Amino acid sequence: MLLILLTIAIIALATYLYLKPLIDNLFYSVPHEPKYIHSYIPFIGFGLKMFKDPIEFIRSFYLKYGKTFVIYLASKRWVYFYDEQTFLTKVLKSSDLSIDEFIIDASVYGLSVSRQCVENEDIQQITLKQYHQYLIGDELEILNKRVHDSLIESIKLDAKKGQDNQTRIVNLFDYFGEFMLYAGAEGLFGHSFVIEQRNATPNFYKLFQEFGDACRLSFLRIPFRSILHKSTFQSRLEFVKRFSSLKLNNGESKLIHAREELFRSDKYKHLFSQYDIGALQAGIIWAAVVNTAIMSCWSLVDLLLHPEALEAVKQELKENISSSSTLIYDKETLAKLKILESCINESMRHIFNTVSARQAKIDTIIECLDKTKVGLRKGDMLVYPTFLKHFDPNLFGPNPYEYQYDRFIKKPNEPKAPSVMLFGCGPHMCPGRFLAINEIKMLITVIIQHMDIEFVNMTEQDKDDYRKKLPYDYTKMISSGGPKKGYEHKFDIKYSYKNLDIE
């Protein structure tokens, strides 16, 4: 009897979730709504196809339905809107549309922090000001130096372990991902904090990965997640604890210092639990590293797959970093590495599932520059799919999927170099974008200067295939992904060090 009742309940729930979008369309529609594309899978909607390859999936809908259409995903309506000029000139300026509520929900559900500590308007304004104050100018150069020093320390520590001259095989993404985690942590939280994490158990990098997995499960509101993924959420709690009792004046950056003082100030401390503070600080390092580390690795993979690009970067480094006295982390030096930056932008253009989004605060109608109208319901997510622009043949030539390492360097016969939109737009454009690009430049520079790398499981056919399309894992959705499941071993490498004083 219990089994029958349970079966009936599951069928009823699935039926409700399937019919809900259709019922909502019947009772809550607004004028000028874009075409709604219904999925036969309840709740998940088109999630399975999105996980497989969101760029090609959305591109196929764009080619079939035009610049605007609606899909249902994880109980939310997503209005895809491929009209850059209207988005930039009208959507970003509309008081009826905002990203604030979405960011709040991402923190509440993703980090499991209390809503009161992130929806306070004073806190929002102060933290946004802190980002723009402490991630640019002289403070950025301090962060650059810390990141660079940490990368050098990591390879020296590893080189000392391997002085037996045995060939070592590692996974490129895990190996350099851990380097970047410690580098990002040192930049933000200081050298003493990193020393503690290097010597602590469980492993800091493994906890970082579990923290990210827990955030994704929570953000997507996967049913029964705390039961089915109990160990993942336990690891997230352990990771958060590493940040819950930070010691001030212990080498942390001005950004982290200011955040700690804000969270624990007499005026606002009632809003934050100890867990909230730890989770928000842990969220900073996750946001700083989760995309940067992966994109560093894919940029390196592309260089290794395209010898002409690697040689061009080596020549540029030779011209601009001519001696051991050159400060690689110096902003003027980093700014000169135009070919390397073009390579990075090209790799990110190829695989990064970039979008810019705003959420409707009320039922509203947008009048596009071409006089067409788009109706939005309260709560709709309006998404400008930047990645469609990144594969537009009108902007990137007849073969936009081809890797062209110097694509973003202005040519003599061109009015300007093409542009990409990798870090969002408007007032919520990623404030850490300058640090992110600098980190990638420094990691690749350090690798080229001090390491020889060779893929051990990648055949020539694999290389030819990956030059056409990298086996990128899109299932991460809210962050960058490494290789697709089953392809990880293809990115195992053997390596050795050179030009490195480890005394």
From TrEMBL:
<comment type="similarity">
    <text>Belongs to the cytochrome P450 family.</text>
</comment>
<keyword id="KW-0503">Monooxygenase</keyword>
<dbReference type="GO" id="GO:0006699">
    <property type="term" value="P:bile acid biosynthetic process"/>
</dbReference>
<feature type="binding site" description="axial binding residue">
    <location>
        <position position="430"/>
    </location>
    <ligand>
        <name>heme</name>
    </ligand>
</feature>
<dbReference type="InterPro" id="IPR002403">
    <property type="entry name" value="Cyt_P450_E_grp-IV"/>
</dbReference>
<dbReference type="GO" id="GO:0008395">
    <property type="term" value="F:steroid hydroxylase activity"/>
</dbReference>
<keyword id="KW-0443">Lipid metabolism</keyword>
<protein>
    <recommendedName>
        <fullName>Cytochrome P450</fullName>
    </recommendedName>
</protein>
<keyword id="KW-0753">Steroid metabolism</keyword>
<keyword id="KW-0349">Heme</keyword>
<keyword id="KW-0560">Oxidoreductase</keyword>
<dbReference type="GO" id="GO:0016705">
    <property type="term" value="F:oxidoreductase activity, acting on paired donors, with incorporation or reduction of molecular oxygen"/>
</dbReference>
<dbReference type="InterPro" id="IPR050529">
    <property type="entry name" value="CYP450_sterol_14alpha_dmase"/>
</dbReference>
<keyword id="KW-0408">Iron</keyword>
<dbReference type="InterPro" id="IPR017972">
    <property type="entry name" value="Cyt_P450_CS"/>
</dbReference>
<dbReference type="GO" id="GO:0020037">
    <property type="term" value="F:heme binding"/>
</dbReference>
<dbReference type="Pfam" id="PF00067">
    <property type="entry name" value="p450"/>
</dbReference>
<dbReference type="InterPro" id="IPR036396">
    <property type="entry name" value="Cyt_P450_sf"/>
</dbReference>
<dbReference type="InterPro" id="IPR001128">
    <property type="entry name" value="Cyt_P450"/>
</dbReference>
<keyword id="KW-0479">Metal-binding</keyword>
<dbReference type="GO" id="GO:0042632">
    <property type="term" value="P:cholesterol homeostasis"/>
</dbReference>
<dbReference type="GO" id="GO:0005506">
    <property type="term" value="F:iron ion binding"/>
</dbReference>
